[in-house]
Automatic annotation (TrEMBL):
Record-level Gene Ontology MF annotations: translation initiation factor activity
Organism in which the protein naturally occurs: Christensenella tenuis
UniProt binding sites for GTP: 338-345, 384-388, 438-441
Name used for this protein in its record: Translation initiation factor IF-2
Residue ranges with Basic residues bias: 225-234
Amino acid sequence: MSKIKILETNKSLLANAQNIFNRILEMQTEADGQIRDIKTIESKILDIEKVRNEKARAEKEEQQRMEEEARRMAEQKAAEEKAAAEQKTAPEIVKATEETPKPEVKEEESAKAAPEKKEQPAAPAAACPQMQQPQRMEAKTKPSVPPKQAASRQAVPQKQEAKEGQKKQERMETKPAKKFANTNAKPGGFEHGKKTKKQLEDERAKRPKIKERVFNIDDDDFPKGSRKRHKKQQQPKVVIEPIKIEKAVITEETISVKLFSEKIGKPVSEILKKLLLLGMMSTINSQIDFDTATLVAGEFGIELEQKIEKTAEDILIEEAPDTEEQLLKRPPIVTIMGHVDHGKTSLLDKIRQSKVTEGEAGGITQHIGAYQVELNGEKITFIDTPGHEAFTAMRARGAQVTDIAIIVVAADDGIMPQTVEAINHAKSADVPIIVAVNKIDRPNANVQKIMQELTEHDLLPEEWGGQTIVVPVSAKTGEGIEKLLEMILLVAEVQELKANPDRLAKGTIVEAQLDKGRGPVATVLVETGTLRTGDTIIAGTAYGRVRAMVNDLGKTVNEAFPSQPVEVIGFSEVPAAGDILHAAPADKLSKQVAEERKDKQKAEMLKKMSKVSLDDLFNQIAEGQIKDLNIVIKADVQGSVEAVRQSLEKLSNEEVRVRAIHCGVGAITETDVMLASAANAIIIGFNVRPDNMAQTAAEHEKVDIRLYRIIYKAIEDITAAMKGMLEPEFEELVIGHAEVRQTFKVSAVGTIAGCYVTDGLIRRNAQARLLRDNVVIYEGALSSLKRFKDDAKEVAQGYECGLSLERFDDIKEGDVVECFEMHEIAR
Ligand SMILES: Nc1nc2c(ncn2[C@@H]2O[C@H](COP(=O)(O)OP(=O)(O)OP(=O)(O)O)[C@@H](O)[C@H]2O)c(=O)[nH]1
């Protein structure tokens, strides 16, 4: 009894630990989401800051430009006045000055002084007519030349000036693409030289407006592809366009709704709505596959692409194929299987004793899970764990280490059930079989009988014209052992077993344990490549570096070649037998792979741990987690139990089979809950309630208990849940219990129950049910609630009260009144 209690306590502790673990995972996910949000906000703030800075810079530049313009205007005015004065005194000089082509000088100066003018230049076509007439332009622009420059220009020969003018014109004509072709801007940027004072004043008056426009010019107004434009253009981006995602990439097979919403920039609620329209009930954490995600993204007009990223695991197992020249012959790996007591261990021992020390004088064999023997200079590796259980366990983990299976059959016994199993295991693994008929030294040995029996299992001996090699042996005397080894080498020869020793090692863990002194120790059977001391290794979730290697003779070795068993020290934890070992090119990679595998294990464990409930039944069915919907049925009478069982089992369909794993009459007990927990079942109660222990256990074990009073409602709920359409709107909340201590019959009123409130409270307006031995015998409302003679609204725990039930008088002492309210559930 106490053991059971301990077991149960352990179980509940485990469940608690699991809950805490789940909560931590949830918190971690939440924290990750919040960090992401913070990062997004951060980057937005930076963007805004950037825009603000750009705007301030542009304003500053604009101000500088205005100042520069004002200064130039003043100079211009002075020049005009001076020119007017000179005109009066020296008309010929004026004439000469008028004929001097200088617009390009002014233009250059103007461009240098006011780079912003380039932001609104004329379109090339518009600019050209003016540029094609430098002589005429110069006549008009002459007054704007500063006096100093004008004087120096007078000394320049006309011919040279004309040439320069032409060159400049050509330069401007050949580079139209580098200038902005903003058609909105006035083509005045290069024309200062020819403007009159009035024009310039007009322009100055208009300038604030231009500035305003510059700020509102959209990027799209400019021709695309001009890098120079971005360099020179100092326009701030004031208008922040909302980001429109047209294409998104997902990098895994499935994606959570939350992450998907971030990728496509749509709210989770919108996505859930779309999924619902596709018939999928999902939550923010639900995983959706690429096809579904594509459909949803399509609804938003977003193209979705899948680019599966390479995991560390992919990189680890990625291997270049070996060339024919790289492949060298390797020893065969042999497993011995057979029925109990037919002599597997004896045979393995005999082979080892007879051959292992050859050439290794004084060598003491070590038990490391596998050993090698030598015959005529050729090696054979034996896996030292006899029996097909280990063989199959390894196969189940994806490790197929065995090249040849020896089926041991005792000559004095015959083929037994485990012999048949062993034969079938070897056959299903497609491994060649050699039959060793053992114990031939025994007087009642009958090899012919064994051969006869072998034919019944599709193993026709060679002697009888078949393919199966049968070798009579005695593990006791050693007779036939040499022949058996020869046959093994022969079969290996036919198999052409080869491996490339010149690559990173890959192998299988044959045995592993935690050694007090040396830490995790594992025997590795190298399959291909060469394992070396110092190599980075990973097997399952255990990783590390080869610190030391010991062979089957107890000798320290620095290298292990294909088919060689070695004991390896240096793992971070004990790997499992059957795990595949990889030597990794880098420490980091092995660590990453281990992390990935641990995450995967965790996810799978969580998946397995998640209990079925009607709320997420559809999701679990959809994910293929549930094939059977197990149900425990408890009802008040046997008739109901049967009726409910039949109705519910009829709901089975192709995807899910509804199975009543336990049915019974009476209250829902803790045992029912434990059974439901173990079988991942839902409990359906009809007119019965769970007792306190059951209630607590159900909370611990996360078992879904559904209570009904009408069969069709249960059927309706389960049908809906199976279709993913379950939408219960209300949830029952028990608010208190009162025990009936005494009953009184009052002629006009009916039965009055004198009660004691044991927990919670009894509320006059709440609903009530009457329980007798946890079986519901009435459900309805209170017709009265009194404290002594006074009507009461509610009576709390620890107080006495009198109550009566609406249209129900069959109240007995010991009954319990359960008071409850219905609350709407937010889904
Ligand atoms: N006479 C004789 N006895 C043998 C021979 N081989 C094994 N035995 C005996 O048979 C018994 C069982 O041998 P094991 O080697 O333990 O057989 P096993 O198949 O490994 O048995 P399990 O490990 O229990 O599956 C032992 O008492 C051995 O001494 C043999 O060739 N001749």
